[in-house]
Amino acid sequence: AQKITQTQPGMFVQEKEAVTLDCTYDTSDPSYGLFWYKQPSSGEMIFLIYQGSYDQQNATEGRYSLNFQKARKSANLVISASQLGDSAMYFCAMREETMNRDDKIIFGKGTRLHILP
Amino acid sequence: EAGVTQFPSHSVIEKGQTVTLRCDPISGHDNLYWYRRVMGKEIKFLLHFVKESKQDESGMPNNRFLAERTGGTYSTLKVQPAELEDSGVYFCASSQMGRGRWGNEQFFGPGTRLTVL
């Protein structure tokens, strides 16, 4: 069965430092996608980054990068030069994609990130 | 372009009452998903519509939950009768059919916070 594990319930990081949020996953599907979403205090879910299981390079989107280690089933999110506005809940998620790319997304429990001034 | 909208943003009801949540997806998105996050737990999938048809309703907790998507546009999720354990945040998401840059990115609405007293 597919599963997402985020072992850090909360993190405190000094502003301007880099942050790594951990995520491991489990799936038997050879084709899958990995996502990170940000949920600020206002409640909306904001898509940050996507990594396909067959992508050769790690995904990057601005200050966000995904450290994809397929053999270890790890998909850590790295935020460079953190900002106060990065304080939020972060969810790692996965979708099995062999059958289709419209399937449901499975989420981890989330990591609450606090950026300190 | 308008994003996914949900109504109401908050709802407080008593046990045994009925509540109906509404989701308006992004125009042109055939896929519509409902998810739920109970306090302190993962965001969990409830069901998936493709246009007006239920593609996957494996996550619906029981028959007190009824989802509809008339005409393949907006969707409603009715809880009748509501129980205490139904409290949580209900998210709606939508996506286009076919291959997007990120494999059919799901765009989330702001959620409806349901409190059952």
List the defining traits of the structure above.
heterodimer; A: 117 residues; mainly beta; four-stranded antiparallel sheet; 0% helix; globular; B: 117 residues; seven-stranded mixed sheet
Shape of chain B: globular
User: What proportion of the residues of chain A is helical, as a percent range?
Assistant: under 10%
- String of helices and strands of chain B: EEEEEEEEEEE
Q: Mean of residue pLDDT of chain B?
A: 91
Number of strands of chain B: 11
Shape of chain A: globular
First-to-last CA distance of chain A:
41 Å
Low-confidence stretches of chain A: none
Q: How large is the count of helical segments of chain A?
A: 0
H/E element order of chain A: EEEEEEEEEEEE
Query: Which strand-content bin applies to the residues of chain B?
Result: over 45%
Radius of gyration of chain B: 14 Å
Structural class of chain A: mainly beta
Compute the average pLDDT of chain A: 93
Largest sheet of chain A: 6 strands, mixed
Structure notes:
The complex is a heterodimer of chains A (117) and B (117). Chain A has strands at 3-5, 10-14, 19-21, 24-26, 32-39, 46-52, 60-61, 64-69, 74-79, 88-96, 106-107, 111-116. Chain A is an all-beta fold. In chain A, the strands form three sheets. In chain A, strands 2, 5, 6, 10, 11 and 12 form a six-stranded mixed sheet that branches. Chain A has a four-stranded antiparallel sheet with strand order 3-9-8-7, with no helix packed on it. Chain A is globular, with a radius of gyration of 14 Å. The mean pLDDT of chain A is 93. In chain B, strand 5 and strand 6 (53-56) form a beta hairpin. Chain B is built from no helices and eleven strands. Chain B is globular and about 40 Å long. Helix content of chain B is 0%, strand content 48%. In chain B, the strands form two sheets. In chain B, strands 2, 4, 5, 6, 9, 10 and 11 form a seven-stranded mixed sheet that branches. By secondary structure, chain B is mainly beta. The chains are: A mainly beta (117), B mainly beta (117).
